[in-house]
Design brief:
By secondary structure, this protein is an alpha/beta fold. It contains twelve helices and 13 strands. The radius of gyration is 19 Å and the shape is globular. The structure holds (4S)-2,6-dioxohexahydropyrimidine-4-carboxylic acid (DOR) and zinc ion (ZN).
Length: about 350
């Protein structure tokens, strides 16, 4: 197959940042994606509905002419988040989800949740009104090995939460382990998981073989090969509980190439080509549309996009840019370490 036309995709987990970085990265997402769920971990974070409204306006102002793109806003859950504010944002049609960051788990998570008991009232309200909770599923206990933090989170936090609030819609964001996949598979349809492009392509060797490679450092950290295989199986299975959230997370190069580099991989530019390559390798090109354009929309109660995009396959590998230049500096683009033959045809 050399041409594939599918519904315009959605990205159910995207970091756009703000200011100069927002201006530089947004066009690469809005070019291909109709909608994206926008992560709230700015500094300061997007905590209240008013913050989300203001951030949404800044995103729309940065949108290039001619791009139709809907930023779907999330709130950053803190131990002082007010259930009424969350509900008001939801009723206005502004807030599509609330994001739980365990404090200290990742970039700009200092204001996140230390004690999940302290956010019970918000979670109960969300369960009652049907507002999804997006979870960064890693424990922060320093005694737990970084490669085990997701599996331990499932056991210590997610499973008990799932039992306590069976009505709550929960998305396990950027699942990276077979433990996470198995957990989601064992639940009803109101538990789902997003899967990133990069976790389908790299395993933990990419970070360390031949030298330390900061542009493969993200959180949750890439795991061993057997986990990557489990993610590929889940993504290409057609199971509607697994859908795309790229977690494209730009950081200017100096913030990654240093003694203590930030977590985050920038994939907005080549995500669709990379995914088509993965689905082709798995003999599942016919399921790409479900993963990128149908299952996530269904979970969030949205109609799939009516517009279509066309992906084309060329014999020579596609040359994607190695970096983009923003007014906040260069940002390195994800290098999949394999030839990518697919790209989105310009409209
Ligand atoms: O790799 C990551 N980057 N993981 C996260 O959880 C946050 C993100 C970011 O904001 O840079
Ligand atoms: Zn993220």
């Amino acid at each position: 197959m050399h041409v594939l036309t599918i519904r315009r995709p959605d990205d159910w987990h995207l970091h756009l940042r703000d200011g100069a970085v927002l201006n530089g990265v947004l066009p690469h997402s809005s070019q291909n994606f109709a909608r994206a769920l926008i992560m709230p971990n700015l500094v300061p974070p997007v905590v209240g509905a008013a913050d989300a409204a203001a951030y949404r306006a800044r995103i729309l102002a940065a949108l290039p002419e001619g791009h139709a793109f809907e930023p779907m806003m999330t709130l950053y859950l803190t131990e002082t988040t007010e259930p009424d504010d969350v509900e008001a944002g939801f009723r206005d049609g502004l807030v599509q989800a609330v994001k739980l960051y365990p404090a200290g788990a990742t970039t700009n998570s200092q204001s996140g949740v230390r004690d999940i008991g302290k956010v019970s009232a918000v979670l109960e309200r969300m369960a009652a009104i049907g507002l999804p909770l997006c979870v960064h599923g890693e424990v922060t206990d320093p005694a737990v090995d970084i490669f085990d933090r997701e599996a331990v989170f499932v056991e210590r936090v997610l499973a008990p939460l799932r039992r306590r609030l069976p009505e709550l819609k929960i998305v396990m964001e950027h699942v990276t382990t077979s433990d996470g996949v198995d957990f989601v598979r064992a639940q009803a349809a109101n538990t789902a998981a997003t899967i990133t492009t990069h976790h389908l392509i790299i395993n933990r060797n990419a970070l360390l073989v031949g030298g330390i490679r900061p542009h493969y450092y993200c959180l949750p950290i890439a795991k061993r090969e057997s986990h990557r295989q489990a993610l590929r199986k889940a993504a290409t299975s057609g199971d509607a509980r697994f859908f795309l959230g790229t977690d494209s997370a730009p950081h200017a190069d100096p913030a990654k190439e240093c003694a203590c580099g930030c977590a985050g991989i920038f994939t907005a530019i080549n995500t669709m080509g990379c995914l088509a390559e993965v689905f082709e390798q798995e003999g599942a090109l016919d399921r790409l549309e479900a993963f990128v354009a149908l299952s996530g929309a269904a979970f969030y109660g949205r109609r799939p996009n009516e517009e279509r995009i066309t992906l084309t396959r060329q014999d020579e590998p596609v040359r994607f840019p190695e970096k983009i230049w923003t007014e906040a500096g260069a940002v390195t683009v994800f290098d999949p370490q394999m030839p990518i033959h697919w790209s989105v045809r310009d409209a």
